[in-house]
């Protein structure tokens, strides 16, 4: 058996609309890594992550999640993954606890384990005081936290997040970041898009920058600084440098 070295491996991934949104993209995320995928608006980040999460069919390419061919065996791949977008889809008529237990049930998680995980996630994400209220009256930030909890309830090994901090206040954003950091400490792998570069700068072990559906830079912050020839610059400065040429060409 070939040893599995990556949590996620994407090769030649392609999706075209009227023009290529993702263009023969190669990407490797190591197990236990926090990886941030950055790029200008329209670069192809969401399209990439939706294909990885099994929500969008690629035109070409391969996706492997912990060695499982995600296109050939999407159910096995989905068992190991969580998908969180900035448009949370939850059931309004349920309370957070009911929702989490419902999602856990779909994954076949035993009731007592589901109850314990639901309570733990609600407490971590500061949902405790509202755990018994229906989600229909919740603010966007609270809905986002319920959706995140729902995505984590089956303890996925690969957590895929598309702009998870959009619309969250500082305290909620901190709670979400703490939960993600805790998951990574416990062995999970995170790939996250964000336009909040300070978050990528502080949390990500490696950063990938895409433009026009292609990876144009990748590395640790130190490596990106070195490549850009920019001593102690912020990620924002480096990002603007790296993407300047591609935005001028757009
Ligand atoms: N369903 C669709 N139909 C047609 N074009 C699409 C569709 N979805 C995405 N695109 C196009 O594909 C390209 C990549 O879009 P995508 O949403 O992946 O970018 P993004 O990097 O996530 O951008 P943003 O940072 O603005 O969210 C864009 O040019 C977008 O207009």
UniProtKB/TrEMBL annotation:
Family matches, as Pfam families: ABC_tran (PF00005)
Keyword vocabulary terms for this entry: ATP-binding, Nucleotide-binding, Transport
Domain of life according to the entry: Bacteria
SMART domains associated with the record: AAA
GO MF annotation terms: ATP binding; ATP hydrolysis activity
Similarity section: Belongs to the ABC transporter superfamily.
Protein name: ABC-2 type transport system ATP-binding protein
Organism: Bauldia litoralis
């Amino acid at each position: 058996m070939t040893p599995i070295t990556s949590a996620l491996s994407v090769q030649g991934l392609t999706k075209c609309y009227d023009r290529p949104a993702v263009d023969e993209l190669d990407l490797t995320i190591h197990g236990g890594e926090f990886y941030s995928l950055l790029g200008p608006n329209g670069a192809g980040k969401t399209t990439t992550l939706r294909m990885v999460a099994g929500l969008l069919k690629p035109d070409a390419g391969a996706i492997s999640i912990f060695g499982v061919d995600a296109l050939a065996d999407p159910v096995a791949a989905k068992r190991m993954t969580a998908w969180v977008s900035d448009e949370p889809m939850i059931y309004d008529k349920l309370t957070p606890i009911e929702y989490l237990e419902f999602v856990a049930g779909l994954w076949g998680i035993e009731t007592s384990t589901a109850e314990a995980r639901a309570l733990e996630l609600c407490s971590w994400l500061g949902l405790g005081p509202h755990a018994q209220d229906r989600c229909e009256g919740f603010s966007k930030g609270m809905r986002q936290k319920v959706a995140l909890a729902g995505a984590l309830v089956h303890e996925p090994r690969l957590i895929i997040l598309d702009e998870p901090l959009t619309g969250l206040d500082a305290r909620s954003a901190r709670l979400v970041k703490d939960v993600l950091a805790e998951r990574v400490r416990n062995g999970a792998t995170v790939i996250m898009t964000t336009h909040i570069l300070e978050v990528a700068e502080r949390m990500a072990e490696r950063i990938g920058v895409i433009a026009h559906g292609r990876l144009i830079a990748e590395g640790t912050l130190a490596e990106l600084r070195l490549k850009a020839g920019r001593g102690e610059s912020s990620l924002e400065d480096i990002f603007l440098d790296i993407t300047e040429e591609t935005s001028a060409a757009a």
